[in-house]
Amino acid sequence: MTSHTGSETQADAAEQDAASRPPTDHGAVEGAAVEGVAPTPTPPTAPGGPGTGPAKAAAGASLADLLIREGDVAGDYLEQLLDIVDFDGDIDMDVEGDRAAVAIVGQHLSPLIGPHGATLDALQELTRLAVLQQTGARSRLMLDVGGYRARRRLELVAVAKNAAERVNAHGDAVTLDAMNPFERKVVHDAISEISGVHSESEGEEPERRVVVLPDA
Predict the structure, then answer these.
(1) Residue 116 burial (CB < 10 Å; 0-12/13-18/19+)?
(2) What sign does the dihedral 148-149-152-154 (CA atoms) show?
(3) Does residue 206 have a cis peptide bond before it, meaning omega lies within 30 degrees of 0?
(4) In what helix (H) or strand (E) does residue 212 lie, and over which residues does it extend?
(5) CA torsion 87→77→156→22, rounded to 10°?
(6) What integer best gives the mean pLDDT of the chain?
(7) Phi, psi of 90 (to 5 degrees)
(8) Tell me: the pLDDT tens digits for 81-93?
(9) 211: helix, strand or coil
């Protein structure tokens, strides 16, 4: 069993934290409208003014408490958004490892996902900004809409396994399609569980790709 190593590991760990930051050509940012969807609301202003920061926010509070707080803030923000765009959906909140996980569950939510998840990525970034303003702490919160990320994760694990089988069978590296940081992290994690292969990322956004290679 092997895993991606060295500077590549550090790079992809950073990518995970930036997983939802939409490329500038997505256009689904504050003040932009998706077809049939009104502009998203501005993240609420944080109370307390100057002096609020990650260190102060974290003082006296455990990580679990902070993640629960992040989920609450995100849930409130997303409820406001759903009211503005007139979409029906329930908000589910959880803690997964060291990050808060929030999901909008419902029907007919595809406009909030967008092509290849671009709108979802933008909404996730806006939600993280709302959390930052309220808590003073940078958030790694993960947002899902209509189960898109869960489905995509399963698809990517299958892609990773298929690529690993091809590498193990023929000994040649396999370069996958361009993916966003979230997708690449899923593939790297899946490859790290498979013997005989390892993975690296190469290229620049938005064309950065995972390469699956045979172990030496």
Answers:
(1) middle
(2) negative
(3) yes
(4) strand 209-214
(5) 100
(6) 81
(7) -100, 150
(8) 999 999 999 999 9
(9) strand
pTM: 0.69
User: Which amino acid is present at 64?
Assistant: A
Q: How many CB atoms lie within 10 A of CB 163?
A: 23
From CA 62, how far away is CA 64, in angstroms rounded?
5
Distance in angstroms (rounded) separating the CA atoms of residues 125 and 71: 14
Tokens 């930052």, residue located: 132
Tokens of 124: 């996730």
The neighbouring-strand residues paired with 178 are: 209
Show the tokens assigned to 26: 């997505």
CA 2 to each of CA 44, 105, 191: distance values in angstroms, whole numbers, following the listed order: 44, 36, 8
The answer to whether residues 81 and 145 touch, using CB atoms and an 8 Å cutoff, is no
The backbone torsions φ and ψ at residue 112, rounded to the nearest 5 degrees and listed phi first, read -85, -5
Tell me the pLDDT tens digit for each residue of 102-127: 999 999 999 999 998 999 999 999 99
- 185: Cβ contacts below 8 Å, ≥ 6 apart: 12, 15, 16, 19
Which of 110, 106, 112, 125 minimizes the C-alpha distance to 182? Answer: 125
CA–CA distance, 66 with 123 (Å, rounded to integer): 21
How many angstroms separate the CA atoms of 194 and 60, rounded? 41
